[in-house]
Amino acid sequence: MLLQYRVSAIAGIFTQFFFGFVRIMVFWSFYSNINTAQPISLSQTVTYIWITQALFRLLPWDGDSEVQEIIRTGNLAYELVRPLDLYSLWLFRALAQRLAPTFLRSIPLILVAILLPSGYSIGLPSLTAFIAFIPTLALAFVLSATITVLMNIFTLWTISGDGINRTIPALVLIFSGSLVPIPLLPDWMQIILKYMPFPGLLDTPVRFYTENLSINELPSYLAIQLFWIFILILLGRLLLRIKLRSIVVQGG
Amino acid sequence: MSQILVRDITKTFKISKRREGLLNALLGVFRREYSIIKALDNISFEIEEGELVGYIGPNGAGKSTTIKILSGILVPDSGYCKVLERIPWEDRINHVRNIGVVFGQRTQLWWDLPVIESFELLKDIYKIREKEYKKTFEELVEVLNIKDFLDVPVRQLSLGQRMRCELAVSLIHSPSILFLDEPTIGLDAVSKLAIREFIKRINLERGTTIVLTTHDMDDIETLCSRIIVIGNGKILYDGTIEGLREKVSRDRILIIDIEDGKDFNIWLDGIKNISNENSRWYVTFDPQKISPSKLIFKITNIYNVKDLFVENPPIEEIIAKFYLEQKI
């Protein structure tokens, strides 16, 4: 079904590319006009931006729209009539929805970004950096899926899903590093964010890729990602179980 | 023990009340008023394996709520319920393995995919063994005559075609119990007949217990030996159709065609009503006060009768009368 929307995929790649350029130019002018040393260099920022654009579809910008539609119309009845654990079903759906389009769009994007003139191109990681990057990337996908499922679960309470669909992405945008790379945010903010789930979605993998963090620090960052995955799964399962006991399935 | 056991089940819903006007709309953000709807009020019944039961009632009576509770989707407020020796909502995943459900107004097929994909997906979900799956699949495809559009995306099917597919997928995992919630709604006469035939057949051949909710009384008359009538959340009747007829009205109707133009008038004890439609006369009478043969004898002595029929009042009328009497 993914390839049925080829035009959408190509359009997506172009969009991310365009915005990548715009953001790079913003940071170019930023770096050109300041004299103080920055926590990360311009070339690291450029790499950060390209990976952000490539991993755009990884981030939980919305809940599962099909699931939210099912909840709204009452077709949830049929989901509950299947011998499946609903939470696991939604989690794997979310995982698939993040994995497939991300790989589809990121690979062409990265390949082009490698070939750009230096200064605009994405840097290539060393072997150790890449080895550290992979597990954090994998956990980022899982973390994104758990947040997506939570958005689905909140829809059970609000039915329309609109409110939650706008609130969480706003938090994700700022606190994952999608808007401004986290190393460039104020120090006090960075300290708080270190213990929140959002940086694990994007900032953590990127920093290992650019070797802003050395592979020695991998265990502690993986632990934070795993911690949040564990907590969010637990929270999701609990909320779902509570809600299903008192559920009102729409329609007669 | 009965296959389906329902005892004193009660279910209420909270509906938030919204009052008119701008001020009330604003206040509604802070303080919600609720009205409590008692969808089910202490209902009890038992269904044995292999029965084909019609579950009827006016709109809003609680039929769908009951089906949802029996399916394990809704949790009742109080009461006891066991289906196949399990409490449906407590052991949902194991419970739903053994039941099939068709919600008439919704689809359980994957909308954009060819019909056959829905079968294959369900095969994986229910973990049906290949050999069993093939056998059941071929049987269902043949009996429901859906072979021609197995490769057509569901969204392109007509309602009749789609309904046959819904029935097929609901049975692909060979459940012991089938809940049909308005399966013939919106269908044309031919499709309805096909579906009725099919329901009868699987009940007889496979011994599948079937609980059917419907507004179509022909469905009920052709299929169900037993009906349960629910109204305002209460069980009002549980027995045979003949039993309900007797309870509501013993009346029969004698329909006669007499020579054109002649006026028809007869006074006999036991005749309840005489009406005319399209030069046909409808005599409603109580067979306990005057036997059909006596009535016919008396009429044919006076009039030249060209044709006659004796009928029960249509079951719709009986049911409607019953609803009225019960004030639902």
Structure, explained:
The complex is a heterodimer of chains A (252) and B (328). Chain A contains ten helices and no strands. Chain A is an all-alpha fold and 252 residues long. With 328 residues, chain B is of the alpha/beta class. Chain B has eleven helices and 13 strands. The A-B interface holds A 1, 73-75, 77-78, 80-85, 245-249, 251-252 and B 13, 59-60, 63-65, 68, 71-75, 89, 92-94, 96-97, 99, 101, 103, 105-108, 112, 125-126.
Give a count of the beta strands of chain B, DSSP E runs of length 2 or more: 13
Give a short account of the largest sheet of chain A. none
Reported by name, the CATH topology of the largest domain in chain B is Rossmann fold
**Number of distinct beta strands of chain A:** 0
What characterizes the major β-sheet of chain B? 6 strands, mixed
The portion of residues forming beta strands of chain A comes to under 5%
Q: Determine the mean pLDDT of chain B.
A: 90
Summarize the structure.
Chain A has 252 residues and is an all-alpha fold.
Identify the notable features of this structure and list them briefly:
heterodimer; A: 252 residues; mainly alpha; 69% helix; globular; B: 328 residues; Rossmann fold; Alpha-Beta Plaits; 2 domains; six-stranded mixed β-sheet
Q: What is the secondary structure topology, with strand pairs?
A:
The complex is a heterodimer of chains A (252) and B (328).
Chain A lengths: L5 H27 L9 H13 L10 H9 L2 H5 L5 H30 L11 H32 L3 H14 L11 H8 L8 H7 L8 H28 L7
Helix pairs in contact in A: 1-2, 1-5, 2-5, 5-6, 6-7, 6-9, 6-10
Chain B lengths: L3 E14 L4 H9 L2 E15 L4 E5 L6 H9 L6 E6 L8 H5 L2 E5 L11 H11 L4 H15 L14 H13 L5 E5 L7 H18 L2 E5 L3 H7 L2 E6 L2 E7 H8 L3 E7 L12 E7 L2 E6 L6 H11 L2 E7 L3 H11 L3
Parallel strand pairs in B: 3-7, 3-8, 5-6, 6-7
Antiparallel strand pairs in B: 1-2, 1-4, 8-9, 10-12, 10-13, 11-12
